[in-house]
UniProtKB/TrEMBL annotation:
Residues 87-289 form the Uroporphyrinogen decarboxylase (URO-D) domain. GO terms for molecular function: uroporphyrinogen decarboxylase activity. The lineage of its organism: Bacteria, Bacillati, Bacillota, Clostridia, Eubacteriales. Signal peptide: none annotated. This is Uroporphyrinogen decarboxylase (URO-D). InterPro entries: UROD/MetE-like_sf, Uroporphyrinogen_deCOase. One of its GO terms (biological process) is porphyrin-containing compound biosynthetic process.
Length: 299
């Protein structure tokens, strides 16, 4: 299977030839340490590092340094044209996008608490921007979309589930519906415990859930049960586990909790591999997962 075929098969709960793997990004420090580089990291270096880790999928944000609308996805275009990776485009969700329209995150939270009448208009503005970015990314060659919306932390959602349902989840559904017109899988990303709003995420129409930043593997297993044959799960490997002696056992435990036999893409919960990580241990874990072969059942 090609990388793209492997990711699509996992998303569709079909049989794969090996466990697919994906991260958002490999930082320069990680790439340099992994490849023993003493000079600046090049495009080809980054591609090689992704191959060493056995990745199938990557994700790209719009370039904030390029103001021209036709160039904001230049990195994505290059990777799509010159590599065979499955390429996700990262765009803001309604909550995260609206927060950026306020002077500070505190001001944003206060506006929600006070039920500021300006909120609906700002949410509409944020969603319109994300729609434009998403459609442009698909036109640029993105294989899929990840809607990034950090609505939670380890203790639960940052605002009440009721407030999320009033102001943001209807717009998430709208965003998914518009971007689904050009057929491409859409994932929802959020850190933290999403247990109280998992049904809302499912009902939004997304195809997958990224991060799995729950406090325990039991929580991840519960998410798998609730989303079986509905959402493909991606991530879940805590960055701290790479430094532990039982790091490969942790990978096995995560696979058992998250895959349920299919519909899973292995990766870190953070989505970013940084230079502070022990690269030898990281590659050991990824090689271990690659060597497990196909553990997914036919659906």
């Amino acid at each position: 299977m090609t990388k793209i075929e492997r990711i699509l098969a996992a998303i569709r709960f079909e049989r794969v030839d090996r466990i697919p793997k994906g991260e958002f990004y490999l930082e320069d420090g990680f790439v340099a340490e992994l490849l023993g580089l003493k000079e600046n990291v090049t495009f080809r270096d980054r591609v090689e590092a992704c191959e060493v880790c056995g990745l199938d999928a990557l994700a790209f944000s719009p370039s904030s340094s390029l103001r021209e609308k036709d160039r904001i996805w230049d990195d994505l275009k290059q990777w799509r044209a010159e590599t065979d990776f499955f390429i996700f485009a990262l765009i803001d969700g309604p909550f995260q996008g609206t927060a950026k329209l306020f002077p500070s995150f505190t001001d944003f939270l206060l506006a929600i608490a006070r039920r500021d009448p300006i909120l609906p208009a700002l949410v509409t503005e944020a969603v319109a921007s994300s729609v434009e970015l998403g459609l442009n990314a698909l036109s640029a060659g993105a294989n899929g979309i990840i809607i990034a919306d950090d609505i939670a932390y380890q203790g639960g959602t940052l605002i009440s589930p009721a407030a999320l349902r009033k102001y943001f989840f209807p717009n998430l559904t709208e965003l998914v519906e518009v971007l689904r017109a050009p057929t491409a899988p859409i994932f929802f990303h959020a850190d933290g415990d999403l247990s109280l709003v998992l049904s809302d995420i499912i009902n939004s129409g997304v195809d997958g859930l990224h991060s799995l930043d729950f406090s325990s593997l039991t929580d991840i297993a519960n998410v798998r049960v609730a989303t079986e044959n509905i959402l493909c799960l991606m991530g879940g490997y805590d960055l701290g586990w790479f430094s532990e002696e039982n790091r490969t056992e942790k990978a096995s435990e995560l696979l058992a909790a998250a895959s349920g036999g299919s519909g899973y893409i292995f990766g870190s919960s953070a989505g970013i591999l940084g230079g502070e990580l022990p690269v030898q241990q990281v590659t050991e874990v990824y090689q271990y997962v690659s060597n497990l072969g196909n553990t997914h059942r036919d659906m």
